[in-house]
TrEMBL record:
<feature type="domain" description="N-acetyltransferase">
    <location>
        <begin position="3"/>
        <end position="152"/>
    </location>
</feature>
<keyword id="KW-0012">Acyltransferase</keyword>
<dbReference type="InterPro" id="IPR036527">
    <property type="entry name" value="SCP2_sterol-bd_dom_sf"/>
</dbReference>
<dbReference type="Pfam" id="PF13527">
    <property type="entry name" value="Acetyltransf_9"/>
</dbReference>
<protein>
    <submittedName>
        <fullName>GNAT family N-acetyltransferase</fullName>
    </submittedName>
</protein>
<dbReference type="InterPro" id="IPR051554">
    <property type="entry name" value="Acetyltransferase_Eis"/>
</dbReference>
<comment type="similarity">
    <text>Belongs to the acetyltransferase Eis family.</text>
</comment>
<dbReference type="Pfam" id="PF13530">
    <property type="entry name" value="SCP2_2"/>
</dbReference>
<feature type="binding site">
    <location>
        <begin position="88"/>
        <end position="93"/>
    </location>
    <ligand>
        <name>acetyl-CoA</name>
    </ligand>
</feature>
<keyword id="KW-0808">Transferase</keyword>
<dbReference type="InterPro" id="IPR025559">
    <property type="entry name" value="Eis_dom"/>
</dbReference>
<dbReference type="InterPro" id="IPR000182">
    <property type="entry name" value="GNAT_dom"/>
</dbReference>
<feature type="active site" description="Proton donor">
    <location>
        <position position="122"/>
    </location>
</feature>
<feature type="binding site">
    <location>
        <begin position="80"/>
        <end position="82"/>
    </location>
    <ligand>
        <name>acetyl-CoA</name>
    </ligand>
</feature>
<feature type="binding site">
    <location>
        <begin position="117"/>
        <end position="118"/>
    </location>
    <ligand>
        <name>acetyl-CoA</name>
    </ligand>
</feature>
<dbReference type="InterPro" id="IPR041380">
    <property type="entry name" value="Acetyltransf_17"/>
</dbReference>
<feature type="active site" description="Proton acceptor; via carboxylate">
    <location>
        <position position="409"/>
    </location>
</feature>
Length: 409
């Protein structure tokens, strides 16, 4: 195999997309291809060629993502795949290496983020599991709220056709986004092509996309996007289900009301709520939180492309002044010692002795504030050279609320 990795041209898009559809075992109809093309940034799409044949590829979407302290530019890595005929011959390694070098040279983003199809793939390229997510399976008949659940008589619930709801959804999402690490800005095209589509393919056997909005005289304060499916048992007992795709609210009363609207849907026995934050307030609202039947798995993976700029770009929960020795085999410009002074927001190269030595993926995992460095140290991944340095950095990097990207890109 003679491998070349380079940016694709417009005319090479079909060849790149064919590789992806093959790699993901997909048979997407043409409208899905068109949506995907509309979101893609061709100049940030690379492919690997074996001679003339496209055999792998990867994309970057340019996002503004909230990190502790506020939004920063983040490279959203997506649509990565290698032809089954060329797997395990280093094609992904060549793509990831090229992408990280391009990002460093371009200088636009110091941080890259992705959702992994399999959790074993990206650690070797310096990505750390930075956010987790919970999925709930809530039996509606056991979903009573605690007596202290907040209410607001000014609020009402309204069913809105999703296509008409976009201004309300954007208003709520954009109000919530700056306070939650991991949430990223959604363009109009992203809403249209990723969040609101409703073809048979998108429904996957469920009913149409539905939207509930909680509002008062000032406008929308919360929403839920979901699908439902009616079903009856052989004894004619209603056993319908709801699949909650997204639920956001700007305040506790709107949040509780939207959840109630989803949980109280008639003829539905269960609500499946995927990809919820690990600190979802629903855990406090349900009178019997065991009924959430939660499953835990990974959400965003984070790669610090330029460790110095990335660490200087976020805020910290506690002061820290220490020297880090970063180990990074893929991005040699990161290897070496850096002095991080959180009060000054500075992270500069230094010759001073290291207080901590740690690999770049461990720093990436801690970057959004959801994963204690102390736990990585307990797993033997961090070396402490000055007593107290680990506790200092671990406390500084934690953040409230927990990180959450909400929807896969
Ligand atoms: C952000 C996203 O888009 S996530 C989507 C990723 N894509 C997919 O899941 C689609 C289906 N899978 C594929 O296309 C390919 O199998 C890929 C992209 C996952 C891997 O591509 P390959 O070219 O085979 O990877 P490559 O040969 O460079 O492997 C590099 C290393 O990763 C390991 N690796 C590759 N895939 C996996 C995996 N799925 N799980 C665990 N390890 C893996 C290899 O064993 C190899 O390890 P080594 O360095 O110790 O020998």
């Amino acid at each position: 195999m003679s491998l070349t990795v380079r940016a694709i041209t417009d005319s090479e898009w079909p060849a790149y997309s064919d590789v992806l559809f093959e790699a993901f075992n997909s048979s997407y109809p043409s409208e899905i291809r068109e949506r995907w093309r509309e979101l893609a940034e061709i100049d940030r799409t690379i492919a690997a060629f074996d001679g003339d044949l496209a055999v792998g590829g990867a994309q970057i979407l340019s996002f503004s993502m909230t990190v502790p302290g506020g939004p920063i530019p983040v490279a959203g890595v997506t649509s990565v795949g290698v032809l089954p005929s060329h797997r395990r011959r280093g094609v992904l390694t060549a793509l990831m290496t090229r992408q990280l070098h391009d990002l460093h040279e371009n200088g636009r983003e110091a941080v890259a983020a992705l959702y992994a199809s399999e959790a074993g793939i990206y650690g070797r390229f310096g990505y750390g599991r930075a956010a987790d997510t919970l999925s709930f399976r809530i039996p509606t008949h056991d979903s009573a709220f605690t007596r202290s659940a907040p209410t607001d008589p000014a609020l009402r619930l309204r069913l809105v056709p999703p296509a008409d709801a976009l201004p309300a959804l954007q208003r709520v999402y954009d109000a919530v986004r700056p306070g939650r690490p991991g949430l990223y800005g959604r363009s109009g095209g992203f809403w249209r092509n990723e969040i609101l589509p409703d073809t048979e393919h998108d429904r996957g056997g469920m009913g149409p996309l539905r939207c509930l909005v909680a509002e008062d005289a000032t406008g929308a304060r919360g929403y839920a996007l979901f699908r439902a499916r009616g079903r009856w048992s052989e004894h004619s007992v209603p056993e319908g289900e709801v699949r909650l795709l997204e639920l956001m609210a700007t305040d506790p009363a709107a949040y509780a009301l939207v959840w109630r609207g989803v949980l109280d849907r008639d003829l539905c026995a269960v609500v499946h709520a995927g990809r919820r934050p690990v600190d979802d307030p629903i855990m406090h609202l349900l009178a019997d939180p065991r009924r959430l039947n939660a499953i835990w798995f990974d959400d965003l993976w984070i790669r610090l492309v330029d460790v110095d700029r990335a660490l200087a770009a976020r805020a910290y929960a506690a002061p820290a002044d220490l020297v880090l020795e970063v180990v990074d085999e893929i991005c040699p410009w990161n290897a070496g010692r850096l002095r991080l002074v959180t009060d000054k927001g500075s992270c500069e190269p230094t010759d001073a002795p290291a207080d901590l030595t740690l690999p770049v993926d461990v720093l990436g995992a801690a970057y959004l504030g959801g994963r204690p460095l102390r736990a990585a140290a307990d797993a033997g991944l961090v070396r402490e050279h000055r007593p107290g340095a680990l506790r200092e950095l671990s406390a500084a990097m934690m953040w409230d609320p927990a990180p959450w990207g909400c929807r896969v890109f």
